[in-house]
Structure formats: structure tokens, C-alpha cells
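Sequence only, no structure available. Ideas?
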Amino acid sequence: MVIHYISQALTQQIYKMITMISGFHSTKTSKSLRYINAIDLIDVNPDVKNIVGHSLGGSVALELQTNFKYRKYNVNTYGAPVVSASTIPSNRYRNKYDPVSQYDNGAQTEFPLTLNPHGYDNFDQNKVSDKTFSSFVYRTDS
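Reply:
I predicted one. C-alpha cells follow.
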């Protein structure tokens, strides 16, 4: 029974890696519920200029930046599952040994301060903009 669960978890991880390598950022993100929710929020709040995302939220932020170039979003991402050899005009950050963002070669890489390499606590000084702006936070714990 335990071997079955380990095998299933390993299979899921391999599948995630394959889909990520084959273009996860460009083909799957725009179909995610998180992306659809972000589009709904942007439609209600057209003055949004700064987008910050962690993990899948980072991929959503980059996808919004790509799909709405005329809006010129300022984007910060932390630990996003991106496959990239070159930098996109945005601020991307990742921790060394983070398995989620390991293929984001264009991100600025730092050593994690905690045992969780997928966290973002050590990046709290990175800012999208130094100008005052109102913000709307959409957070899910799922």
C-alpha cells in the first residue's frame, strides 16, 4: 500500500516536470483557474499596474504580462515554474535548490534562509515600484 502511494507521487512529480519542460508556462497557465480569476479581477480593476506572484501565481503574472503587453505591467515573481534561458523584462527571483523554479535560468537566484527552498521570505526587500499605489490582494490557500 505504501509503495503504491510513493509510486503514484513519483509519477505525478515526473508528469509535472515533463509538462513544465514542454512549455508549462506558455500552454497551461492561461487555462488555470488562478489565471481566469486574475483576468476577472483585472477587468474590475483596470488601473492595476503591479502584479506579484509566487509559484503558480508567478506564472500567472508572467502570462498576464505576455498576453496584455499594451498594459505594461510591472511584474515580480518568486519561485515560478518557468522554463527560461533568457530574461523576460520583469523581476524574477528564485531560491537555489527550489524544485519548482529550477528551470528558470533567467531568475535572480539566492540561497534560502529557511529549510523551505520554495519560500520567498528572503526576498522581502525586492519591490515592483517605489511609487505609492493602492493594491488589491487576492489570495487563496489552496
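The two ends are 27 Å apart (CA to CA).
Hope that gets you unstuck.
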